[in-house]
Amino acid sequence: MGVRGLIDMKVTIDGQEIDVEPGTTILQAARKIGGESVPPAMCYYSKLKGSGGKCRCCLVEVSKGSEADPRPMPKLVASCVTGCMDGMEVKSISSERVLDARKSVTEFLLINHPLDCPVCDQAGECDLQNLSFKHGAAKTRFIEEKRTFEPENIGPNIQLHMNRCIVCYRCVMTADQLTDNRVHGVLNRGDHSQISTAISKAIDNEFSGNMIDVCPVGALTDKTFRFKQRVWFNKPYNAHRNCDKCCGKTTLWMFGNEIQRVTARKDEYHEVEEFICNECRFDHKDTADWVIEGPRKFEKDSVINQNNYTRHIKPVVIETEHNILLGRDKDRKKISMTGVPMKPEEQKVLKEGNV
Amino acid sequence: MSIESLSLSGRKKEVSNKKMTFMESLYLVAIAKGLWITLGHLFTRKVTIKYPEQTRSLSPVYRGQHMLMRDDEGRERCTACGLCALSCPAEAITMKAEERKPDEKHLYREEKYASIYEINMLRCIFCGLCEEACPKQAIYLTKSRVMVKSASNREDFIYGKEKLVMPLEMAINNTKPQMAK
Q1: CA-based nearest residue in chain B for residue A307
Q2: Do residues A42 and A27 lie in contact, with contact meaning Cβ atoms separated by under 8 Å?
Q3: What's the pLDDT tens digit per position in B113-172?
Q4: How far apart are CA A295 and CA A312, in angstroms?
Protein backbone atom coordinates (compact mmCIF):
# COMPACT_ATOMS: atom_id res chain seq x y z
CA MET A 1 0.00 0.00 0.00
CA GLY A 2 2.70 2.46 1.04
CA VAL A 3 1.61 5.83 -0.25
CA ARG A 4 -2.04 4.84 -0.40
CA GLY A 5 -2.12 4.25 3.34
CA LEU A 6 -1.64 7.94 3.97
CA ILE A 7 -4.51 8.98 1.74
CA ASP A 8 -8.01 9.07 3.18
CA MET A 9 -10.21 6.16 2.24
CA LYS A 10 -13.60 6.64 0.68
CA VAL A 11 -16.39 4.68 2.35
CA THR A 12 -20.06 4.68 1.35
CA ILE A 13 -22.58 3.91 4.07
CA ASP A 14 -26.22 3.75 2.98
CA GLY A 15 -25.27 5.77 -0.08
CA GLN A 16 -23.56 8.52 1.92
CA GLU A 17 -19.91 8.98 1.08
CA ILE A 18 -17.29 9.93 3.64
CA ASP A 19 -13.49 10.08 3.69
CA VAL A 20 -11.95 8.42 6.71
CA GLU A 21 -8.43 7.75 7.91
CA PRO A 22 -7.00 4.25 7.63
CA GLY A 23 -7.78 2.20 10.73
CA THR A 24 -11.25 3.64 11.20
CA THR A 25 -13.93 1.08 11.84
CA ILE A 26 -17.23 1.08 9.95
CA LEU A 27 -19.08 2.13 13.12
CA GLN A 28 -16.82 5.12 13.64
CA ALA A 29 -17.26 6.11 9.99
CA ALA A 30 -21.04 5.81 10.38
CA ARG A 31 -20.91 7.97 13.50
CA LYS A 32 -19.05 10.59 11.51
CA ILE A 33 -21.98 10.67 9.10
CA GLY A 34 -24.53 10.45 11.90
CA GLY A 35 -28.26 10.06 11.57
CA GLU A 36 -30.24 6.92 10.97
CA SER A 37 -27.45 4.81 9.50
CA VAL A 38 -25.42 4.70 12.74
CA PRO A 39 -25.62 1.09 13.92
CA PRO A 40 -26.69 0.61 17.54
CA ALA A 41 -23.96 -0.58 19.90
CA MET A 42 -24.42 -2.27 23.23
CA CYS A 43 -20.87 -3.38 24.00
CA TYR A 44 -18.66 -1.08 21.91
CA TYR A 45 -17.47 2.01 23.78
CA SER A 46 -15.18 4.40 21.95
CA LYS A 47 -13.43 5.46 25.17
CA LEU A 48 -12.56 1.93 26.20
CA LYS A 49 -9.78 0.07 24.42
CA GLY A 50 -10.65 -3.41 23.23
CA SER A 51 -14.41 -3.03 23.59
CA GLY A 52 -16.80 -4.24 20.94
CA GLY A 53 -17.50 -7.35 18.97
CA LYS A 54 -19.57 -9.07 21.64
CA CYS A 55 -23.19 -8.00 21.40
CA ARG A 56 -23.63 -8.25 17.59
CA CYS A 57 -26.10 -5.35 17.59
CA CYS A 58 -24.04 -3.34 15.15
CA LEU A 59 -24.13 -5.89 12.32
CA VAL A 60 -23.98 -4.34 8.87
CA GLU A 61 -23.91 -5.68 5.35
CA VAL A 62 -20.83 -4.99 3.27
CA SER A 63 -22.06 -5.01 -0.30
CA LYS A 64 -18.66 -4.17 -1.78
CA GLY A 65 -15.49 -5.19 -0.01
CA SER A 66 -13.11 -2.59 -1.41
CA GLU A 67 -11.90 -1.02 -4.63
CA ALA A 68 -9.28 -3.74 -5.01
CA ASP A 69 -11.59 -6.61 -4.16
CA PRO A 70 -15.16 -5.61 -4.95
CA ARG A 71 -16.74 -8.89 -3.83
CA PRO A 72 -19.35 -8.45 -1.08
CA MET A 73 -18.67 -10.01 2.29
CA PRO A 74 -20.69 -13.22 2.56
CA LYS A 75 -21.91 -12.67 6.11
CA LEU A 76 -23.00 -9.62 8.04
CA VAL A 77 -20.05 -8.12 9.89
CA ALA A 78 -19.84 -6.43 13.27
CA SER A 79 -19.20 -2.83 12.29
CA CYS A 80 -17.48 -1.89 15.57
CA VAL A 81 -14.52 -4.19 14.96
CA THR A 82 -14.37 -4.22 11.14
CA GLY A 83 -12.00 -1.73 9.59
CA CYS A 84 -12.92 0.34 6.58
CA MET A 85 -11.35 -0.33 3.21
CA ASP A 86 -10.96 2.08 0.33
CA GLY A 87 -14.10 2.09 -1.80
CA MET A 88 -16.06 0.00 0.65
CA GLU A 89 -19.82 0.09 0.34
CA VAL A 90 -21.84 -0.64 3.44
CA LYS A 91 -25.56 -1.04 3.94
CA SER A 92 -26.76 -0.35 7.44
CA ILE A 93 -30.38 0.65 7.84
CA SER A 94 -31.12 0.28 4.14
CA SER A 95 -30.58 -3.47 4.19
CA GLU A 96 -33.43 -5.83 4.98
CA ARG A 97 -30.96 -8.48 6.13
CA VAL A 98 -29.40 -6.12 8.67
CA LEU A 99 -32.74 -5.09 10.14
CA ASP A 100 -33.74 -8.72 10.41
CA ALA A 101 -30.45 -9.59 12.12
CA ARG A 102 -30.81 -6.73 14.58
CA LYS A 103 -34.29 -7.89 15.43
CA SER A 104 -32.99 -11.37 16.15
CA VAL A 105 -30.06 -10.06 18.18
CA THR A 106 -32.43 -7.93 20.24
CA GLU A 107 -34.58 -10.97 20.84
CA PHE A 108 -31.54 -12.93 22.01
CA LEU A 109 -30.44 -10.13 24.35
CA LEU A 110 -33.92 -9.96 25.83
CA ILE A 111 -34.10 -13.71 26.48
CA ASN A 112 -32.58 -13.40 29.91
CA HIS A 113 -33.24 -9.73 30.50
CA PRO A 114 -36.09 -9.26 32.98
CA LEU A 115 -38.94 -7.03 31.84
CA ASP A 116 -38.82 -4.90 34.95
CA CYS A 117 -38.42 -1.50 33.30
CA PRO A 118 -41.10 -0.03 35.64
CA VAL A 119 -38.84 -0.90 38.58
CA CYS A 120 -35.47 -0.29 36.94
CA ASP A 121 -33.68 3.00 37.58
CA GLN A 122 -32.05 2.92 34.16
CA ALA A 123 -35.41 3.15 32.35
CA GLY A 124 -35.44 6.21 30.16
CA GLU A 125 -31.71 6.20 29.48
CA CYS A 126 -31.27 2.49 28.82
CA ASP A 127 -29.56 1.40 25.63
CA LEU A 128 -31.35 -1.93 25.57
CA GLN A 129 -34.69 -0.17 25.98
CA ASN A 130 -33.87 2.08 23.03
CA LEU A 131 -32.66 -0.88 20.99
CA SER A 132 -35.77 -2.95 21.60
CA PHE A 133 -37.97 0.06 20.95
CA LYS A 134 -36.32 0.60 17.59
CA HIS A 135 -35.44 -2.89 16.47
CA GLY A 136 -37.21 -5.32 18.77
CA ALA A 137 -40.27 -7.43 18.16
CA ALA A 138 -43.48 -6.43 19.90
CA LYS A 139 -43.96 -9.83 21.49
CA THR A 140 -41.69 -12.32 23.13
CA ARG A 141 -41.53 -15.93 21.98
CA PHE A 142 -39.55 -17.03 25.01
CA ILE A 143 -41.67 -19.10 27.38
CA GLU A 144 -38.96 -20.71 29.48
CA GLU A 145 -37.88 -19.34 32.80
CA LYS A 146 -35.31 -16.56 32.78
CA ARG A 147 -31.94 -17.03 34.39
CA THR A 148 -31.72 -15.43 37.84
CA PHE A 149 -28.94 -14.73 40.28
CA GLU A 150 -28.72 -14.18 43.99
CA PRO A 151 -28.51 -10.46 44.75
CA GLU A 152 -25.01 -9.40 45.69
CA ASN A 153 -23.86 -6.37 47.63
CA ILE A 154 -20.85 -4.74 46.01
CA GLY A 155 -20.48 -1.71 48.22
CA PRO A 156 -22.35 1.35 49.43
CA ASN A 157 -22.35 3.26 46.13
CA ILE A 158 -23.01 0.81 43.34
CA GLN A 159 -26.03 -1.44 43.06
CA LEU A 160 -25.55 -4.64 41.10
CA HIS A 161 -28.56 -6.30 39.46
CA MET A 162 -27.03 -9.32 37.84
CA ASN A 163 -30.35 -10.43 36.32
CA ARG A 164 -30.31 -7.42 34.01
CA CYS A 165 -26.72 -7.87 32.84
CA ILE A 166 -26.05 -8.56 29.16
CA VAL A 167 -22.35 -9.34 29.75
CA CYS A 168 -20.95 -6.59 27.56
CA TYR A 169 -17.67 -6.41 29.56
CA ARG A 170 -17.74 -2.61 29.52
CA CYS A 171 -17.50 -2.36 33.31
CA VAL A 172 -14.63 -4.82 33.41
CA MET A 173 -12.72 -2.75 30.86
CA THR A 174 -13.50 0.44 32.76
CA ALA A 175 -12.04 -1.07 35.91
CA ASP A 176 -9.00 -2.29 33.97
CA GLN A 177 -8.26 0.93 32.17
CA LEU A 178 -9.32 3.56 34.71
CA THR A 179 -8.51 2.06 38.06
CA ASP A 180 -5.30 0.43 39.17
CA ASN A 181 -6.78 -2.55 40.94
CA ARG A 182 -9.72 -4.39 39.49
CA VAL A 183 -11.70 -6.36 42.07
CA HIS A 184 -14.61 -7.50 39.93
CA GLY A 185 -14.92 -9.50 36.77
CA VAL A 186 -16.97 -12.10 34.96
CA LEU A 187 -17.20 -15.40 36.78
CA ASN A 188 -18.33 -18.67 35.22
CA ARG A 189 -19.13 -19.30 31.60
CA GLY A 190 -21.99 -19.27 29.11
CA ASP A 191 -25.41 -18.85 30.60
CA HIS A 192 -23.94 -18.74 34.09
CA SER A 193 -21.47 -15.93 33.44
CA GLN A 194 -21.88 -13.38 36.13
CA ILE A 195 -20.40 -10.01 37.04
CA SER A 196 -19.14 -10.38 40.55
CA THR A 197 -16.40 -9.52 42.98
CA ALA A 198 -14.61 -12.74 43.72
CA ILE A 199 -15.45 -13.08 47.39
CA SER A 200 -18.18 -10.46 47.98
CA LYS A 201 -15.72 -7.63 48.14
CA ALA A 202 -16.82 -4.00 48.03
CA ILE A 203 -15.80 -2.00 44.99
CA ASP A 204 -14.38 1.20 46.43
CA ASN A 205 -11.92 2.43 43.86
CA GLU A 206 -11.79 6.17 43.24
CA PHE A 207 -13.09 5.85 39.66
CA SER A 208 -15.33 2.82 40.10
CA GLY A 209 -18.49 4.92 39.79
CA ASN A 210 -17.92 5.19 36.06
CA MET A 211 -19.12 1.60 35.79
CA ILE A 212 -22.60 3.00 36.32
CA ASP A 213 -22.38 5.38 33.39
CA VAL A 214 -20.75 2.80 31.17
CA CYS A 215 -23.34 0.08 31.80
CA PRO A 216 -25.76 -0.02 28.85
CA VAL A 217 -28.53 -1.59 30.95
CA GLY A 218 -29.63 -1.27 34.56
CA ALA A 219 -27.23 -3.91 35.89
CA LEU A 220 -25.05 -1.32 37.59
CA THR A 221 -26.92 1.64 39.01
CA ASP A 222 -26.29 4.40 41.52
CA LYS A 223 -27.20 3.22 45.00
CA THR A 224 -27.52 6.77 46.29
CA PHE A 225 -30.16 7.38 43.60
CA ARG A 226 -31.91 4.04 44.01
CA PHE A 227 -35.68 4.46 43.48
CA LYS A 228 -35.42 8.17 44.22
CA GLN A 229 -36.91 9.44 41.02
CA ARG A 230 -37.64 8.41 37.48
CA VAL A 231 -35.05 10.05 35.26
CA TRP A 232 -37.57 11.91 33.16
CA PHE A 233 -38.86 13.80 36.19
CA ASN A 234 -35.38 15.11 36.93
CA LYS A 235 -34.08 18.32 35.42
CA PRO A 236 -30.58 17.76 34.07
CA TYR A 237 -28.07 20.60 34.37
CA ASN A 238 -24.48 20.92 33.25
CA ALA A 239 -22.30 21.80 36.19
CA HIS A 240 -18.67 21.75 37.21
CA ARG A 241 -16.54 22.03 40.32
CA ASN A 242 -12.85 22.19 41.04
CA CYS A 243 -11.77 18.63 41.56
CA ASP A 244 -8.15 17.59 41.90
CA LYS A 245 -8.86 14.01 40.81
CA CYS A 246 -10.98 14.46 37.70
CA CYS A 247 -12.18 17.11 35.28
CA GLY A 248 -15.16 17.92 37.54
CA LYS A 249 -17.52 18.38 34.58
CA THR A 250 -20.78 16.63 35.33
CA THR A 251 -24.51 16.55 34.75
CA LEU A 252 -26.62 17.20 37.83
CA TRP A 253 -30.03 15.55 37.94
CA MET A 254 -32.11 17.94 40.01
CA PHE A 255 -35.56 17.71 41.48
CA GLY A 256 -36.52 21.12 42.74
CA ASN A 257 -33.45 22.40 44.59
CA GLU A 258 -32.25 18.94 45.48
CA ILE A 259 -29.43 17.23 43.60
CA GLN A 260 -30.60 13.66 43.34
CA ARG A 261 -27.88 12.23 41.15
CA VAL A 262 -24.60 13.24 39.57
CA THR A 263 -23.41 11.62 36.37
CA ALA A 264 -20.76 12.28 33.80
CA ARG A 265 -21.84 14.12 30.67
CA LYS A 266 -22.96 11.71 27.99
CA ASP A 267 -22.94 12.37 24.28
CA GLU A 268 -25.57 11.35 21.74
CA TYR A 269 -24.35 7.74 21.74
CA HIS A 270 -24.65 7.64 25.54
CA GLU A 271 -20.89 7.55 25.97
CA VAL A 272 -19.40 9.72 28.69
CA GLU A 273 -17.42 12.71 27.46
CA GLU A 274 -15.02 12.63 30.40
CA PHE A 275 -14.88 10.17 33.28
CA ILE A 276 -15.49 11.59 36.74
CA CYS A 277 -14.35 10.50 40.18
CA ASN A 278 -16.44 8.98 42.92
CA GLU A 279 -16.16 12.05 45.13
CA CYS A 280 -17.90 14.21 42.52
CA ARG A 281 -20.44 11.52 41.82
CA PHE A 282 -21.50 10.40 45.28
CA ASP A 283 -20.35 12.90 47.89
CA HIS A 284 -21.37 16.29 46.58
CA LYS A 285 -25.16 16.50 46.66
CA ASP A 286 -25.29 20.13 47.71
CA THR A 287 -25.91 22.87 45.16
CA ALA A 288 -23.34 25.09 46.89
CA ASP A 289 -20.59 22.70 45.77
CA TRP A 290 -21.33 23.18 42.11
CA VAL A 291 -21.22 25.90 39.49
CA ILE A 292 -24.30 25.32 37.36
CA GLU A 293 -23.76 26.18 33.71
CA GLY A 294 -27.24 25.62 32.34
CA PRO A 295 -29.73 22.99 31.31
CA ARG A 296 -28.37 19.95 29.52
CA LYS A 297 -29.78 19.25 26.09
CA PHE A 298 -30.86 15.78 25.01
CA GLU A 299 -31.88 14.26 21.71
CA LYS A 300 -35.24 15.46 20.55
CA ASP A 301 -37.04 12.15 21.04
CA SER A 302 -35.50 11.35 24.43
CA VAL A 303 -37.97 10.71 27.22
CA ILE A 304 -35.88 12.98 29.43
CA ASN A 305 -37.31 15.93 27.51
CA GLN A 306 -40.85 14.92 28.48
CA ASN A 307 -42.89 17.50 30.37
CA ASN A 308 -40.03 20.01 30.20
CA TYR A 309 -41.39 23.12 28.64
CA THR A 310 -38.00 24.61 27.96
CA ARG A 311 -38.80 25.61 24.41
CA HIS A 312 -39.31 29.24 23.67
CA ILE A 313 -43.06 29.68 23.46
CA LYS A 314 -44.32 32.56 21.40
CA PRO A 315 -47.33 34.42 22.79
CA VAL A 316 -50.49 33.61 20.92
CA VAL A 317 -51.98 36.52 19.06
CA ILE A 318 -55.70 36.27 18.42
CA GLU A 319 -56.60 38.39 15.50
CA THR A 320 -60.02 39.77 16.24
CA GLU A 321 -61.67 43.01 17.08
CA HIS A 322 -60.28 44.76 20.09
CA ASN A 323 -63.49 44.84 22.12
CA ILE A 324 -64.39 41.17 21.66
CA LEU A 325 -61.58 39.99 23.89
CA LEU A 326 -61.47 42.88 26.31
CA GLY A 327 -65.15 43.72 26.57
CA ARG A 328 -66.62 47.18 26.41
CA ASP A 329 -64.68 49.93 28.11
CA LYS A 330 -67.49 50.78 30.52
CA ASP A 331 -67.87 47.11 31.54
CA ARG A 332 -64.19 46.82 32.21
CA LYS A 333 -64.35 49.80 34.51
CA LYS A 334 -67.01 48.11 36.61
CA ILE A 335 -64.90 45.03 37.13
CA SER A 336 -61.50 46.52 37.71
CA MET A 337 -62.20 48.84 40.58
CA THR A 338 -58.57 49.60 41.28
CA GLY A 339 -58.08 51.28 37.95
CA VAL A 340 -61.04 53.55 38.43
CA PRO A 341 -61.04 55.86 41.44
CA MET A 342 -64.25 55.71 43.43
CA LYS A 343 -66.61 58.65 43.56
CA PRO A 344 -66.91 60.38 46.98
CA GLU A 345 -70.43 59.03 47.60
CA GLU A 346 -69.28 55.53 46.77
CA GLN A 347 -66.41 55.84 49.21
CA LYS A 348 -68.85 56.96 51.87
CA VAL A 349 -71.06 53.96 51.30
CA LEU A 350 -68.06 51.65 51.43
CA LYS A 351 -66.90 53.13 54.71
CA GLU A 352 -70.19 53.34 56.60
CA GLY A 353 -72.07 50.53 55.01
CA ASN A 354 -75.22 50.88 52.98
CA VAL A 355 -77.70 51.08 55.87
CA MET B 1 -79.91 37.71 0.16
CA SER B 2 -79.55 40.09 3.04
CA ILE B 3 -79.16 39.05 6.67
CA GLU B 4 -82.60 40.44 7.52
CA SER B 5 -84.46 38.11 5.18
CA LEU B 6 -82.29 35.05 5.76
CA SER B 7 -83.70 32.22 7.86
CA LEU B 8 -81.07 29.85 9.18
CA SER B 9 -83.57 27.62 10.97
CA GLY B 10 -86.12 27.72 8.19
CA ARG B 11 -88.85 28.66 10.68
CA LYS B 12 -88.55 32.37 10.51
CA LYS B 13 -91.89 34.12 10.51
CA GLU B 14 -92.54 37.70 9.79
CA VAL B 15 -94.34 39.45 12.65
CA SER B 16 -96.99 41.84 11.51
CA ASN B 17 -98.80 44.50 13.37
CA LYS B 18 -102.15 44.14 11.60
CA LYS B 19 -105.33 44.66 13.57
CA MET B 20 -107.06 41.45 14.71
CA THR B 21 -110.54 40.58 13.50
CA PHE B 22 -113.37 40.10 16.02
CA MET B 23 -113.09 36.30 15.95
CA GLU B 24 -109.37 36.47 16.49
CA SER B 25 -109.74 38.89 19.39
CA LEU B 26 -111.90 36.29 21.23
CA TYR B 27 -108.82 33.98 21.26
CA LEU B 28 -111.07 30.90 21.17
CA VAL B 29 -109.31 29.35 18.23
CA ALA B 30 -105.90 30.20 19.62
CA ILE B 31 -106.72 28.65 23.03
CA ALA B 32 -108.06 25.50 21.37
CA LYS B 33 -104.92 25.27 19.28
CA GLY B 34 -102.72 25.65 22.33
CA LEU B 35 -104.65 23.04 24.31
CA TRP B 36 -104.35 20.65 21.39
CA ILE B 37 -100.59 20.97 21.49
CA THR B 38 -100.63 20.38 25.28
CA LEU B 39 -102.78 17.29 24.78
CA GLY B 40 -100.42 16.02 22.14
CA HIS B 41 -97.52 16.19 24.57
CA LEU B 42 -99.29 13.83 26.97
CA PHE B 43 -98.78 11.02 24.50
CA THR B 44 -95.19 11.65 23.49
CA ARG B 45 -92.20 9.83 24.99
CA LYS B 46 -91.16 11.22 28.35
CA VAL B 47 -87.72 12.80 28.46
CA THR B 48 -87.41 12.82 32.25
CA ILE B 49 -86.97 9.93 34.68
CA LYS B 50 -87.96 9.57 38.34
CA TYR B 51 -84.44 10.27 39.48
CA PRO B 52 -83.74 8.88 42.93
CA GLU B 53 -85.59 5.65 42.19
CA GLN B 54 -84.46 5.39 38.60
CA THR B 55 -81.00 6.14 37.25
CA ARG B 56 -79.78 6.32 33.72
CA SER B 57 -77.46 3.63 32.41
CA LEU B 58 -73.82 4.64 32.14
CA SER B 59 -71.91 4.74 28.91
CA PRO B 60 -69.58 1.77 28.46
CA VAL B 61 -66.62 4.15 28.42
CA TYR B 62 -67.67 5.93 31.62
CA ARG B 63 -64.69 6.82 33.78
CA GLY B 64 -65.21 7.48 37.47
CA GLN B 65 -62.85 7.80 40.36
CA HIS B 66 -59.41 6.19 40.28
CA MET B 67 -58.48 3.12 42.22
CA LEU B 68 -55.07 1.58 42.84
CA MET B 69 -55.65 -2.13 42.44
CA ARG B 70 -54.44 -5.04 44.51
CA ASP B 71 -53.53 -8.37 42.98
CA ASP B 72 -54.99 -11.79 43.84
CA GLU B 73 -52.96 -11.97 47.00
CA GLY B 74 -53.98 -8.52 48.18
CA ARG B 75 -50.64 -6.89 47.41
CA GLU B 76 -50.50 -3.47 45.85
CA ARG B 77 -49.77 -3.64 42.16
CA CYS B 78 -48.33 -0.16 41.78
CA THR B 79 -44.57 -0.02 41.48
CA ALA B 80 -44.26 3.77 41.14
CA CYS B 81 -42.86 3.65 37.63
CA GLY B 82 -44.16 7.14 36.95
CA LEU B 83 -45.73 6.42 33.59
CA CYS B 84 -49.16 7.58 34.75
CA ALA B 85 -47.69 10.86 35.91
CA LEU B 86 -45.81 11.14 32.63
CA SER B 87 -48.87 10.51 30.51
CA CYS B 88 -51.18 12.72 32.57
CA PRO B 89 -52.03 15.75 30.42
CA ALA B 90 -53.23 17.69 33.45
CA GLU B 91 -50.15 16.80 35.52
CA ALA B 92 -52.38 15.74 38.37
CA ILE B 93 -50.38 12.75 39.59
CA THR B 94 -47.33 12.82 41.84
CA MET B 95 -45.63 9.94 43.54
CA LYS B 96 -42.64 8.94 45.59
CA ALA B 97 -41.08 5.53 45.37
CA GLU B 98 -39.53 3.48 48.11
CA GLU B 99 -37.80 0.14 48.33
CA ARG B 100 -39.75 -2.77 49.73
CA LYS B 101 -38.37 -4.18 52.97
CA PRO B 102 -38.02 -7.96 53.28
CA ASP B 103 -40.91 -8.11 55.78
CA GLU B 104 -43.26 -6.20 53.46
CA LYS B 105 -43.44 -8.82 50.74
CA HIS B 106 -47.09 -9.50 51.50
CA LEU B 107 -47.97 -5.81 51.03
CA TYR B 108 -46.33 -4.90 47.74
CA ARG B 109 -45.93 -7.00 44.66
CA GLU B 110 -42.73 -5.49 43.29
CA GLU B 111 -39.37 -4.58 44.72
CA LYS B 112 -40.31 -0.92 44.57
CA TYR B 113 -43.59 0.59 45.66
CA ALA B 114 -45.23 4.00 45.86
CA SER B 115 -44.92 5.32 49.40
CA ILE B 116 -46.76 8.47 48.38
CA TYR B 117 -49.24 8.49 45.55
CA GLU B 118 -51.36 11.58 45.11
CA ILE B 119 -53.88 12.66 42.53
CA ASN B 120 -55.02 16.23 42.52
CA MET B 121 -58.69 15.83 41.71
CA LEU B 122 -59.05 19.51 40.89
CA ARG B 123 -56.58 19.00 38.08
CA CYS B 124 -57.73 15.57 36.93
CA ILE B 125 -59.83 15.59 33.79
CA PHE B 126 -60.76 11.87 33.95
CA CYS B 127 -59.30 11.19 30.53
CA GLY B 128 -58.10 7.71 31.49
CA LEU B 129 -54.61 8.06 30.01
CA CYS B 130 -53.07 6.93 33.32
CA GLU B 131 -55.01 3.69 33.09
CA GLU B 132 -53.81 3.21 29.54
CA ALA B 133 -50.19 3.95 30.38
CA CYS B 134 -49.97 1.69 33.43
CA PRO B 135 -47.75 -1.33 32.66
CA LYS B 136 -48.79 -3.13 35.83
CA GLN B 137 -52.57 -2.71 35.51
CA ALA B 138 -52.43 -0.93 38.84
CA ILE B 139 -54.50 2.19 38.28
CA TYR B 140 -58.05 1.97 37.03
CA LEU B 141 -60.82 4.45 36.60
CA THR B 142 -63.78 2.78 38.26
CA LYS B 143 -67.42 2.82 37.24
CA SER B 144 -68.22 4.55 40.51
CA ARG B 145 -70.85 7.24 40.13
CA VAL B 146 -69.09 9.27 42.76
CA MET B 147 -66.42 11.22 41.00
CA VAL B 148 -65.15 13.78 43.45
CA LYS B 149 -67.03 14.63 46.60
CA SER B 150 -67.46 18.28 47.31
CA ALA B 151 -65.33 19.87 49.98
CA SER B 152 -64.57 23.36 51.14
CA ASN B 153 -60.81 23.06 51.30
CA ARG B 154 -58.46 22.79 48.36
CA GLU B 155 -56.20 20.33 50.19
CA ASP B 156 -59.13 17.94 50.54
CA PHE B 157 -59.07 17.34 46.80
CA ILE B 158 -55.56 15.91 46.79
CA TYR B 159 -56.35 12.25 47.17
CA GLY B 160 -53.63 10.17 48.76
CA LYS B 161 -53.18 6.44 48.99
CA GLU B 162 -55.73 6.13 51.81
CA LYS B 163 -58.45 7.14 49.38
CA LEU B 164 -57.10 5.56 46.22
CA VAL B 165 -55.91 2.08 47.16
CA MET B 166 -58.51 -0.63 46.85
CA PRO B 167 -59.90 -1.56 50.28
CA LEU B 168 -58.69 -4.92 51.55
CA GLU B 169 -62.22 -6.28 51.99
CA MET B 170 -62.85 -5.64 48.32
CA ALA B 171 -59.70 -7.51 47.36
CA ILE B 172 -60.75 -10.43 49.56
CA ASN B 173 -64.20 -10.44 47.99
CA ASN B 174 -62.71 -10.39 44.50
CA THR B 175 -60.79 -13.59 45.14
CA LYS B 176 -63.71 -15.45 46.73
CA PRO B 177 -65.46 -16.76 43.59
CA GLN B 178 -62.13 -18.11 42.35
CA MET B 179 -61.58 -20.02 45.58
CA ALA B 180 -65.04 -21.59 45.30
CA LYS B 181 -64.14 -23.12 41.93
Answers
A1: B86
A2: no
A3: 999 999 999 999 999 999 999 999 999 999 988 889 899 999 999 999 999 999 988 888
A4: 14
Domains of chain B and any CATH numbers: 66-180 (3.30.70.3270)
Nearest to B135 among A118, A228, A306 (CB): A118
Query: Which residues lie below 8 Å from residue B82, measured CB to CB, with a gap of 6+?
Result: A230, A232, A233, B95
CATH code assigned to A2-105: 3.10.20.740
Residues 203-262 of A with CB under 8 A from B: 226-230, 232-233
Tell me which chain A residues have a C-beta less than 8 angstroms from the C-beta of B79: 118-119
Out of A226, A230, A233, the one facing B99 most closely (by C-beta) is A226
ipTM of the complex: 0.74
**8 Å CB contact between A231 and A247:** no
Q: Per the confidence metrics, is the pTM higher than 0.95?
A: no
Pick from B91, B98, B136: CB nearest A227: B98
| Number of residues written out for chain B | 181
A112-305 has CATH 3.30.565.10 classification: no
Interval A272-295: pLDDT, tens:
999 999 999 999 999 999 999 988
Write down the domain spans for chain A.
2-105, 112-305
Chain B residues 116-155 within an 8 A CB cutoff of chain A: 135-136
Contact between residue B177 and residue B98 where contact means Cβ atoms under 8 Å apart? no
Distance CA B77, CA A182 (A): 40
Supply the pLDDT for residue B180.
Answer: 56
Name which of B88, B101, B108, B112 to mutate to probe chain A: the one with the most chain A Cβ atoms within 10 A of its Cβ.
B112
Interface subset of B 90-119, CB within 8 angstroms of A: 91, 97-99, 110-112
Which residue stretches of chain B are H helix?
22-26, 28-42, 83-87, 129-133, 161-164, 168-180
